Amino acid sequence: MVVTPADNKQAHELPKVMIKVRHLANRFGSHSVHENLDLDIYQGEIMGVVGGSGTGKSVLLRSIVGLLQPNEGQVEVFGQDFLTLSDREREPLQARMGVLFQKGALYSSLTLTENVALALIEQAGLARGQAQYLAKLKLALVGLPSSAANKYPSELSGGMIKRAALARALALDPDILFLDEPTAGLDPISAAAFDRLLLTLRDALNLTVFLVTHDLDTLYACCDRVAVLSQKRVLVVDKLPQVADFDDAWIQDYFHGPRGRAAQQTASLAAQAHTS
Ligand SMILES: Nc1ncnc2c1ncn2[C@@H]1O[C@H](COP(=O)(O)OP(=O)(O)OP(=O)(O)O)[C@@H](O)[C@H]1O
């Protein structure tokens, strides 16, 4: 059973913090992207990270997973001060984090099985045969038919490629999954199917999910809480209705513009259908 922050509160227990970011600053030359950014992510939650283009959502993701050294601040993951660890100390923790990058980036010259197996060979040191066997299980886990396993990315639809990239992110059985725009470029039906898959996997695998998205339907369908990046920091982090009520021009446009209203209506209809 997944223990959500809400369940934990009911049990009068504090939720376990999986990612703790404090006073983070990221600057590129004279361009300051983050200053004094704080964020906590709890075990088992899906945290949606939104914000205008260029507000630093991907930079935040890269700072947390250790691909970018911030200029200032602390990043604790699994209770460990990530930025002060040596590469050797950090590697086993990084193996517990799966990442699906914005551009999906599967190797075009490898089949789906080979793409997923590569992570198991390179990062877990598995023999090729074992890695390919496990890779096929991961592809099945994300709902790909066995006939897709030996295909190349160019032979597949966008939705199938996203699923394969997700299988690769899950290759090492991570505790935290980072997704950068996983539904970008998908048609609405494939995007909704991806959202359902994410919820199922979160529950089945007890994942904590850091989800960068512009997709309002995904926010309504999947996220336990939402963090809005603006003004170089997390302007607000809360459950979606509270965030949508926050007094800020970008937030009001985003959540209460035509697309925001449509996403909210879809979510209410889905909730009604679920309860009737
Ligand atoms: N390696 C880098 N060198 C210089 N500038 C960078 C680098 N990486 C990111 N930036 C800049 O940091 C800012 C934030 O980039 P980031 O990709 O995190 O934005 P984002 O919020 O994810 O945007 P989008 O929603 O458009 O994907 C941008 O202005 C970008 O140009």
Question: Summary?
Answer:
This is ABC transporter ATP-binding protein. The chain has helices at residues 5-10, 57-65, 87-94, 112-124, 128-141, 158-169, 188-205, 216-222, 240-244, 249-256, 258-275; strands at residues 17-28, 31-42, 46-51, 72-77, 80-81, 97-100, 176-180, 208-212, 225-230, 233-238.
Please outline the helices and strands.
Elements: H1 5-10, E1 17-28, E2 31-42, E3 46-51, H2 57-65, E4 72-77, E5 80-81, H3 87-94, E6 97-100, H4 112-124, H5 128-141, H6 158-169, E7 176-180, H7 188-205, E8 208-212, H8 216-222, E9 225-230, E10 233-238, H9 240-244, H10 249-256, H11 258-275
Parallel strand pairs: 3-8, 3-9, 6-7, 7-8
Antiparallel strand pairs: 1-2, 1-4, 4-5, 9-10
The structure holds adenosine-5'-triphosphate.
Structure keywords:
single chain, 276 residues, alpha/beta, Rossmann fold, 4-stranded antiparallel beta sheet, 43% helix, binds adenosine-5'-triphosphate
Structural class: alpha/beta
| CATH class designation of the domain at 44-68 and 175-255 | Alpha Beta
- Assign the CATH topology of the domain at 44-68 and 175-255: Rossmann fold
Proper CATH architecture of the domain at 44-68 and 175-255: 3-Layer(aba) Sandwich
Weakly predicted, low-confidence segments: none
Percent in strands = 15-25%
The total beta strand count reads 10
